[in-house]
Amino acid sequence: MAATADDIPPLISPDQLAERLGTSRRHLTRLVHERRIPFVKVGWLLRFDAEEITAWIDQHRSAGR
Length: 65
Description:
Elements: E1 11-12, H1 14-21, H2 25-33, E2 40-42, E3 45-49, H3 50-59
Antiparallel strand pairs: 1-3, 2-3
Helix pairs in contact: 1-2
């Protein structure tokens, strides 16, 4: 069965993710380099799966005090 466009998750750019996370692009690049955040390489482009990022945030959420 061939994949359709609906099967492909939406990918976001590093600039979009940095803005959503409220961090700098440089910090995000460091997380990628250290392989601490899930990412996708499309050729030489770096992209992020929104669902994987949501799961990653949930995994790293602290319980608080």
